Amino acid sequence: MSENTYIKERNSKLSQKVVKALQKRHFSAIYCETAAEALDEIKKLVTKEETISWGGSVTLEQTGITKYLIENGYNVINRDSAKTPEEKAQLLRKGLVCDTFLMSSNAISEDGQLVNIDGTGNRVAALCYGPKRVIVVAGMNKVAKTVEDALSRARNIAAPVNMQRINAVMSHRETPCSYTGSCADCVSEDSICAQIVTTRLCKPAGKITVILVNEELGY
Ligand code: SF4
Predict the structure, then answer these.
(1) How far apart are CA 73 and CA 76, in angstroms?
(2) What percent of the chain has pLDDT over 90?
(3) Which of 22, 39, 95, 129 has the smallest C-beta neighbourhood within 10 Å, fewest atoms?
(4) Distance, CA of 90 to CA of 85 (rounded, Å)
(5) Which segment of 1-10, 65-74, 160-169, 187-196 scores lowest on mean pLDDT?
(6) Is the pTM of this model over 0.90?
(7) Do 139 and 213 touch, CB atoms closer than 8 A?
(8) In angstroms, what is the span from residue 15 Cα to ligand 1's centroid?
(9) Stretch 59-65: mean pLDDT
(10) Cα separation of 53 and 34, whole Å?
(11) Distance of CA 182 to CAs 160, 168, 173, 178, Å?
(12) What is the pLDDT of residues 107-150, one digit of tens each?
């Protein structure tokens, strides 16, 4: 067996604990072996009658979910379709009252808590309140032992790596992690770490569906 097989075996076993922990905290939770299975689950959950939006997410790109929704005539609110900054701001606000909001999570603790960091805040705002339903897609690489470990993962792995992506595909941000790759707990105006949100319970029950995927997705 390859090293990768051992990781998949371990994650498959661990996922059973995480799914139960999420359900105990009133999330709906689904486990998928592959990103393709996760996409199939989402196809079952969403309809063309509802409005659908999403937060910026490498995981959603890797799983092909947003591409599928855009190309198949779903009623999407897609801020990347905006032609001006004003239109983008308007679409971000509209996304906060959509029917279904898709996102990933920066980290999930083994006891079923979600940890997310956001700069603009639209992603965590939608997670907390607004959309009728939230679907979180996360690779098993996002699972951390404790909620403290999940916070550390979000701050010390997800955020500095996201910063490299933002610098490359958007515009350069003046933050310590842009230069060192390490979080320095900055208060720069360019920081992407304005909001740090722990979701310890899903309220109302079942509003948030977490789809755990046994693949390395996002960071
Ligand atoms: S250095 Fe600043 S922007 Fe970078 S991860 Fe830390 S708090 Fe976030």
Answers:
(1) 8
(2) 97
(3) 129
(4) 9
(5) 1-10
(6) yes
(7) yes
(8) 30
(9) 95
(10) 23
(11) 6, 17, 14, 8
(12) 999 999 999 999 999 999 999 999 999 999 999 999 999 999 99
Of 161, 172, 105, 175, the closest CA to residue 134 belongs to 105
Pocket test residue of 115, 163, 165, 172 for ligand 1, highest count of atoms within 8 A of CB: 163
Q: In what order do the strands lie in the sheet with 133-139?
A: 28-32, 208-213, 133-139, 100-103, 51-54, 75-77
φ, ψ at 116 (rounded to 5°):
-135, 140
Taking phi over 0 as left and psi of -120 to 50 as alpha, with beta for the rest, 129 belongs to beta
Structure tokens at 141: 């690489």
Q: 């992506």: which residue's tokens?
A: 165
CATH 3.90.660.10 fits 3-213, yes or no: no
Ligand 1 atom, smallest distance to 185 CA = 7
Enter the tokens of residue 58.
């490498």
Q: What is the best residue among 170, 177, 182 to mutate for testing ligand 1's pocket, by most ligand atoms within 8 Å of CB?
A: 177
Cis ω before 176 (30° cut-off from 0): no
